[in-house]
Write a structure and sequence with these properties.
The chain has 331 residues and is of the alpha+beta class. It contains nine helices and 13 strands. The strands form three sheets. Strands 1, 4, 5, 6, 7, 8 and 9 form a seven-stranded mixed sheet that branches. Strands 11-12-10-13 form a four-stranded antiparallel sheet. A two-stranded antiparallel ribbon has the order 2-3. Strand 2 and strand 3 form a beta hairpin. Helix 1 runs antiparallel to helix 4. The chain is globular, with a radius of gyration of 20 Å. The N and C termini lie far apart (42 Å). The mean pLDDT is 95. The chain binds (3R)-3-hydroxy-3-methyl-5-(phosphonooxy)pentanoic acid. (3R)-3-hydroxy-3-methyl-5-(phosphonooxy)pentanoic acid binds next to helix 5.
Length: 331
Amino acid sequence: MTTAREVAQRIVSGRGLPEETAGRGRAPANIALVKYWGKRDEELNLPVTGSLSISLGPLGSEVEVSPAEGPHDAIWLNSAPQPLTGVFARRASAYLDLFRPAPGYWYEVKARNTVPTAAGFASSASGFAAMARALDDLYGWGLSIRELSVLARLGSGSAARSLQDGFVEWHAGSAPDGMDSYGERLPAEWPELRMGAVVLCAAEKPVGSREGMKRSVETCEFYREWPGRVAADLAALKDAIARKDMAALGTVTEGNALAMHALMAATRPPIVYALPETVAAMRTVWAARQEGLPLWFTMDAGPNVKLLFEAKDEARVRGLFPGVQVVAPFG
Ligand code: PMV
């Protein structure tokens, strides 16, 4: 089995310029329209299926990495020092382990999320993508987007989709070392498209995505149906994007999210992220659609809802969801 450090070193060894004093990188957050749920390799974050997301433009992460004195990494998030035993610092240091030139080599990481706090947009994808870019800048590796995507994926699967703007497809790939599992931008623009975040609960999710997807792969009796469903949804979504067909995009996106949540519910022990408020928001969307409003939703591993609509309908959407944070992914 290939380890994550072997993959990282295979990509970066023998490259680069003398180390700079600091490297910087930024990356957008992304929301999957066709979801990733299930790994074929836990260590390398290799997915069972492909997936397709939309990047959130200016919302994401900025990271600065520099060599540090030690005797441990110094990790900052939004100007606050992070306790070394906390989840954020542990994940960041474990990722840096893939790149240290020698044991006992330390880094200082200053991460800043440009996603409004508690906006319900995940920041781990943009965080690892920005970190891969910052390391590339620090060491002058000059990596391609595809190589950066592979490196970002080693931190968090969905980070493979956060190296580019617009619509990004993460190819599942089939190579055991995952070199063919990376994100690629689709040649499509959709300036009128809007995404809205409806925050219903900002509390920590009860089951993380890593644990949740492992449990689904191992115990959900419908999991074997999932790859076929994703293949059909990916084809339909790419067709909808090429034609700029909002109803088709919304139908595939909402249906795929509900299918993923059905898998979660059929996992043992069951995983249900929806709260009563989540179900109420879904019903509001369906009722509005009955009234003729072209509005759809998607949901990730949490209770919050993301809305999809076009710019012309923004005022009506804001009327239904007064606290919604609206993003224009194409600027
Ligand atoms: O990359 P992770 O481990 O944060 O998993 C992401 C899982 C979902 O957000 C539920 C789906 C997706 O494709 O982003």
